[in-house]
Amino acid sequence: MTPEQQGSAPTLEQVAKAAGVSRSTVSRVINDSPKVTPEALAAVRQAIEELGYVPNRAARILASRRTQSIALVIPENTARFFADPYFATVVQGIAMYLSDTDYTLSLLIAAEKDGEKTRRYLQAGNVDGALILSHHSDDRSYTQLARSIPVVFGGRPMSQEGSEAYYIDVDNVEAARNVTRRLIENGRRRIATIAGPADMSAGLDRLEGWRQALDAAGIPTHLVEHGDFSPAGGEAAMRRLLERGEEIDGVFAASSLMAQGALNVLRSHGRSVPHDLGLVTFDNDYAAQSSSPPLTTIEQPTVEQGRRMVDVLLHLIDGGTVSQITMMPTRVIERGSE
Amino acid sequence: MTPEQQGSAPTLEQVAKAAGVSRSTVSRVINDSPKVTPEALAAVRQAIEELGYVPNRAARILASRRTQSIALVIPENTARFFADPYFATVVQGIAMYLSDTDYTLSLLIAAEKDGEKTRRYLQAGNVDGALILSHHSDDRSYTQLARSIPVVFGGRPMSQEGSEAYYIDVDNVEAARNVTRRLIENGRRRIATIAGPADMSAGLDRLEGWRQALDAAGIPTHLVEHGDFSPAGGEAAMRRLLERGEEIDGVFAASSLMAQGALNVLRSHGRSVPHDLGLVTFDNDYAAQSSSPPLTTIEQPTVEQGRRMVDVLLHLIDGGTVSQITMMPTRVIERGSE
DNA sequence: TTGAAAGCGCTAACAG
DNA sequence: CTGTTAGCGCTTTCAA
Question: Locate the HTH cro/C1-type domain: which residues (chains A, B) (predicted)?
Answer without folding.
Answer: 11-54
